[in-house]
Every structure is written in C-alpha cells, then in structure tokens.
Amino acid sequence: MTWRWEYVPDEETVAAGAPPGFVAEVEKTADELVRAAEALHLHGPAYQGADEGAKHAFVAGGFFVYMVTPRSELVSIWQITPDPLS
C-alpha cells in the first residue's frame, strides 16, 4: 500500500460549489498531511492502535474535516467548508 488522501464519499459530493482556490489549498494541505502521516506511521497496515478520530484543518479560505486511518494508509477528507466572508 501507499499513503494517499481522498474525498469521502467522493470529490463531487464533498467539494461541490467550493471556490477552486480554496479547493487547491485543501488539496495542498492534504498532501502535507499524507507526508506527515507516512512519517509518523512507518508500518501503517500493521498499526494496532485506535484511529485518532476526526480533526479540523484550517487553510486560507476556510477549513476541512479529515481523518487519518493508518491501517489503510489513508487520509480521508469528509467535509470542506469555505469561509462565507471571503
């Protein structure tokens, strides 16, 4: 397996209507989260602990909700929320 990130259930559902610049910031940060998770969980599929649960990441233009699942070597993005004032 190789670490990756993906929208759950899919990009069309999660990113629908979000400004392209904001989506780009979300995806850039998702790439960084994948690199960090890969470094932290060197043997991801063999991980025996509990998943960390949902977390929030703030980026230019809003925030998103994600979860790291080491056994699947996956960062899943569940929701992105653009700042309504930007």
Written description of the protein model:
- The chain is α+β, with helices and mostly antiparallel strands and 86 residues long.
- The chain has helices spanning 11-14, 20-40, and strands at 4-7, 55-59, 62-69, 74-82.
- A hairpin with a 2-residue loop joins strand 2 (55-59) and strand 3 (62-69).
Mean pLDDT level: 93
Order of helices and strands: EHHEEE
* Termini Cα gap: 38 Å
Give the tally of β-strands.
Answer: 4
Please describe the biggest sheet, giving its number of strands, its sense, and whether it closes into a barrel: 4 strands, mixed
Find the structural class using helix and strand composition: alpha+beta
Order the strands across the largest sheet as they lie in space: 1-4-3-2
* Helix content bin: 25-40%
Shape: elongated
Number of helices: 2
Beta-strand content bin: 25-35%
Rg, please? 13 Å
Task: Please mark out the parts with pLDDT under 50 across 5 or more consecutive residues, or reply none.
Answer: none
Notable characteristics:
86 residues; alpha+beta; four-stranded mixed beta sheet; 29% helix
